[in-house]
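Example 9 (inverse folding). The structure is encoded as follows.
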């Protein structure tokens, strides 16, 4: 049973100091965690930093290796420890359901918990005691497969109380940060606003049909395939709460959205 669904940011600056503070975002993640504390058995998270070709991948190990998949940051970033348990039984159940329903999906043994997952989880489940099942994005399969995988998660045969998460930045223009740009492109802001209005309206097609110019101006992390996964999970009969919507370095958005059954 799905107990909680959210789209969350995953910037490393949520767990270290680069001269910016994300008080609103961290407060939003902590609030969400407090709201669902004690109500869930496990969390399934899709992150664009876990990327597979040809089929979806699921980490099914009992312990999740913490991956520091970012480079050139101060030492304290690499001293943050977050090592929650995995949930092999749940991972295998999702894989078996996927195979039965024609979704290309399999177990991945050489991955763990990348920063796209653990940087928000660090604030949502601070005690690292909630089992986590990481799921990859798979661009080869396209948006429809991500929606289908999300729908599959709603299967009544999954008896556990689940929190479903997807992480990413709707605006992900790291090239602007690297070039020292001091303004977020207006077209990127327009795309972010379009996504937020789509969440509130339950109109996922509005995101998929957005102008290519707006999409490229924002360059969403993971090409927003994670949002397809969330769409499949929640459908259209839901309410969206925007808990925070910050932008860092004029280049990346930090948007926290909770999706609740209407």
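The amino acid assigned to each position is listed next.
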């Amino acid at each position: 049973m799905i107990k909680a669904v959210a789209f969350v940011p995953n910037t490393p600056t949520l767990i270290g100091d680069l001269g910016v503070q994300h008080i609103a975002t961290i407060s939003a993640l902590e609030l969400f965690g407090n709201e669902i504390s004690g109500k869930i058995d496990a969390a399934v998270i899709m992150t664009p930093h876990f990327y597979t070709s040809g089929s979806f991948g699921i980490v099914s190990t009992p312990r999740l290796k913490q991956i520091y998949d970012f480079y050139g940051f101060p030492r304290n970033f690499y001293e943050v420890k977050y090592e929650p348990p995995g949930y092999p039984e749940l991972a295998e159940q999702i894989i078996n359901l996927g195979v039965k329903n024609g979704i290309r999906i399999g177990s991945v043994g050489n991955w763990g918990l990348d920063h796209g997952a653990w940087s928000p989880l660090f604030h949502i489940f601070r005690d690292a005691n909630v089992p986590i099942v990481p799921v990859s994005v798979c661009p080869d399969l396209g948006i429809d497969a991500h929606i289908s995988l999300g729908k599959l998660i709603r299967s009544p045969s999954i008896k556990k109380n689940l929190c479903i998460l997807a992480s990413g930045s709707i605006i992900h223009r790291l090239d602007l940060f690297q070039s020292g740009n001091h303004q977020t492109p207006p077209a990127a802001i327009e795309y972010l606003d379009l996504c937020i209005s789509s969440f509130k309206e339950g109109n996922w097609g509005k995101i998929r049909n957005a102008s290519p110019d707006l999409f490229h101006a924002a360059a969403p992390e993971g090409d927003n395939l994670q949002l397809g996964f969330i769409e499949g999970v929640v459908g259209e009969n839901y309410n969206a709460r925007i808990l925070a919507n910050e932008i860092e370095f004029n280049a990346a958005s930090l948007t926290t959205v909770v999706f609740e059954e209407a």
